[in-house]
Each structure stands twice: as structure tokens, then as C-alpha cells.
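Justification of computing resources. Each target in the renewal requires a structure prediction run like the one illustrated here; the chain below, 335 residues long, is used simply to show the kind of job we budget for.
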Amino acid sequence: MIKATIYDVAREAGVSIATVSHVINGKGKISRQRREEILNIMKRLNYRPNAIASALASKRTYTLGLLVPDISNPFFAEIARAVEDRGHQLGYSVIICSTDNNEEKVKRYVSLLKQKQVDGVIIGTGVSHGELLKPLQEHSLAITLIARDHSELGASCVRVHDLDGGRLAAEHLLRLGHRRLAVLAENERVTSSGERVRGFVETAALHGVELPPDHIAVCDHKIEDGYRRAKTMLQLAEQPTGLFCCNDLLAIGALQAIRELGLRVPEDCSVVSFDDTILARVTDPPLTVIAQPIEEMGRLAVDLVVQDLSGQSDPARRMVLPPELVVRGSTARLS
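Resulting C-alpha cells:
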């Protein structure tokens, strides 16, 4: 089988080989629509540019790094898939690094990505301060944060409006008549979780509902911790009837605890989660969620990095997407 060449792509697209080269290298003033048309032709013709030659010519490796806390968390698995799909569509490979929100691991992965001479890094992991990530900026790498924000870093970011998400969760439970509310939050390194809790607590307070300190539990990001903290909370004298979980893993743990205590969802306790991963749709009952547009976030994060590399955008663009309340079977009106 004869391999397609850059000339075949140019002829099929009706453009010069220079234009095809600009698309491959992420250069030139080419519209997004035209760029994607040429990329689709390359894919259809199974054209593969010489990676070594391209890298030497452009001083790029066409590789991106992705730092996430835990690839086994379905939210970050779905983020990684979206980033990888979009990266491959634009001609980039993606190195995925799972940090466990451990700062020593973050340092090691930052060093590794520098050694690999990646062109850009997408950061979805929580860090306590921006200094950990400064080496990436000093290495002149394009950086975008995803599902995170870190003002110290001065990087572009794509995230959902977490504060509004917390408000939506509180408003939904309050509309259903719930007044004894509780929250399962993530740890303090996860700034997005802090915003969700703040939105929830402030909205409840506006409606005259104050959450006691023992109705706000800080958890690790694992199912087991959601189970343990929910079980303790549901045995309090003032047992909550409406529970807001800051991610789907905590909500799964909460569902297990509720059942183990002989209670029913949603009759005895309504549960609202955050994220809307595949887990939220396969539980029994399916979870009411504050949904993040996960696929769109991944696509936009890659686009921001690539645009930064090609000089097509100003630095530090901030894209804040609206969350959406999706009502399923885990919430009901308080009887």
C-alpha cells in the first residue's frame, strides 16, 4: 500500500503544502474550521507526518503532559480520555501522570515532563502553592489548568463555575423541603470543592438554614471515606435528610452507608452529587447531579495549550463553564 504524502493531503484539501505544514505545526492564521477540515483529510488518507523531522523543524515534540490526582477516579479518567482524543485529533500524544495529590509525586512528574521536552502541560491536580509548578513556566511550557484554578500560577484555565454548582445543589434540596442539610467535602487542597461547599452553605443560609459544624465533613477522594463519614453523620441526633456530595465517589460511599443503616434513598435521605461521571448514571437509584461538561472541558484545555504554542491567543485565558442540575432518582420531596 502506497503511503499518502503531504502533497496528497494538499491536493485533496485544495491548499498549498505550506498550509498543510502550518496545520501540522500549529502555525499560521488558519481558521479553526479549515484547520479541522485538513486534519480530517489527513486522518482519512492515513497520512502520518515524519515526527522526527517535524520536531526538528519546529523544535517541538508534539507531546503534552496531563497531571491528574487519580486516574482511577472516573471524573479524571473521563477528563483524560477527552484530552487524549482532542490531542490526537490535533496531532499530539499525551503523557498521563497520576499524582494522588502528593506533592513529592508532583515534583517528580514535573521533572519527568521537562526531561521529555513536552510542549505543554494540562494540570488537573491540586497543589498547595504555585511554586511546585514554577519549573514548568521557567521551562517556557504552555500551561493550562483544568477543573482547577490557581491565581499564583497565572496560567490559562478551564473549569466549571463551582460556586454556582453549590448554589444549584442547595436550591434543589431546599425546593424539595429539606432543612436538615449536610455536605461531604474534599480536602483543602481541592479548591474547587471549597467553592462548591461555600456556594451550598451560603445559599442555605440565605434561606434560613444553618449547617452545624458536624454536618460538614472533609473527606479523602475515595469511596471508602465517603462511606465512613456519611455513616457517622447519618447517626447524629439531627440526622440530615438532604446530603450534598462534592464528587461522585463520595456519593457512592454515601449510598452504601445509607443502605447499611437501613435507610432509603430518596425517601429517608436525598443525595445530590457533583461531576456526572458514568458512575452517577449506573447507581441504584441514579444520582441527581450537578453536571460538569467533562468532554468540552478536555477539548477546550487542549485547544488553549495548542493556541498558546502557536501564538494564537493571549496568555492566561480563563474559561468558566456553567454547571447544570440533572435530576434523577436520588432526590425527592421530603414527606
